[in-house]
Amino acid sequence: MELLKTERLKKYFGEVHAVDNVSLEIGQSEFISIVGPNGSGKTTLVNLISGALMPDTGVIYFEGKDITKLPAHKRVKLGIGRSFQIPMVYEFLSSLDNVLVSILSRDGYSSVFYRTVDRLGEARKEAFELLERFSIPLRLVAELPHGHRKLLDVAMALALQPKLVLLDEPTSGISLEERDQVMGTIADVLKEKKVAAVIVEHDMDIVAEYSDRILVMHEGKILKEGGKEILEDEEVRKVLIGE
Ligand SMILES: Nc1ncnc2c1ncn2[C@@H]1O[C@H](COP(=O)(O)OP(=O)(O)O)[C@@H](O)[C@H]1O
Ligand SMILES: [Mg+2]
């Protein structure tokens, strides 16, 4: 069975057909990239899958279960994690504490439980390991450069131990030289942890290198889907270059 499936998902903002009849399937551990020009509906689609937005019509299944009406926090519990185009990190906590917040949120919101020293120690160890894996320094987030914040946001999404992670432009604002290394690390961790991913990405070299499958969006619809060869498709090139 596929991990996630959408059927004719639709989200209009007035006249704007942000997501228009999108049906897609994502398999276990699959790495899917969504590409497309600005305004083609990539972020809206991610928001519909995460539960940040509700669709006008259409259905979303996760592991065969209809989750269309579930709020975002309940989808997180089922195993759908996400990061944001603009990192949603806590400025005045350390990088470690940020990851710790994600890890402890898995336990539920019982603050009494958090104070259990054993659990805290165990969670801190796990947080340390994730920081190390992503080479994120232990520092106040307010003092971290943009690239590290982006990675921290990804680490926080993975700390939730999702089965599917939605990453909206994880390499945006990261220098060309660092981008490949950053995505390489993300891809390695996803493989290790057997996490499926839907990644919105603008860098076509990165998309070609890491994706199992690529979805090209245009005006709210999936224009093409397939392997990296579709990036050479004439219609796809026209849409992407028109950006
Ligand atoms: N909250 C909103 N209200 C009105 N229009 C929106 C909203 N969010 C997105 N849109 C519009 O929907 C379209 C798709 O946007 P978006 O999903 O952000 O595209 P992308 O991520 O591909 O750049 C755009 O035309 C955008 O202006
Ligand atoms: Mg976007």
CATH architectural designation of the largest domain: 3-Layer(aba) Sandwich
Strand tally:
10
- Which structural class should the secondary elements be placed in? alpha/beta
Shape field: globular
- How many separate domains? 2
Return the average pLDDT rounded to an integer: 91
The unreliable regions are none
Tell me what portion of residues adopts beta-strand conformation.
Answer: 15-25%
CATH topology of the largest domain: Rossmann fold
End-to-end span in angstroms?
Answer: 36 Å
Give the CATH superfamily of the largest domain: P-loop containing nucleotide triphosphate hydrolases
Main sheet overview? 6 strands, mixed
DSSP helical segment count: 9
Taking all Cα atoms into account, the compactness measure Rg is 18 Å
Could you explain how this protein is built, in words?
This protein is α/β, with parallel strands linked by helices and 243 residues long. It folds into 2 domains: 1-79 and 163-243, Rossmann fold (3-Layer(aba) Sandwich); 88-160, no CATH class. The chain has 9 helices and 10 strands. It has helices at 42-50, 72-78, 95-105, 111-114, 117-133, 146-159, 176-192, 204-210, 234-241; strands spanning 4-13, 16-26, 31-35, 57-62, 65-66, 80-82, 164-168, 196-200, 213-218, 221-226. The protein has a 6-stranded mixed sheet with strand order 6-7-8-3-9-10, sandwiched between helices. Helix 7 links the parallel strand 7 (164-168) and strand 8. Helix 3 (95-105) runs parallel beside helix 6. The chain starts with a strand and ends with a helix. Bound molecules: adenosine-5'-diphosphate and magnesium ion (MG). Adenosine-5'-diphosphate is lined by residues 13, 16, 18, 36, 38-44.
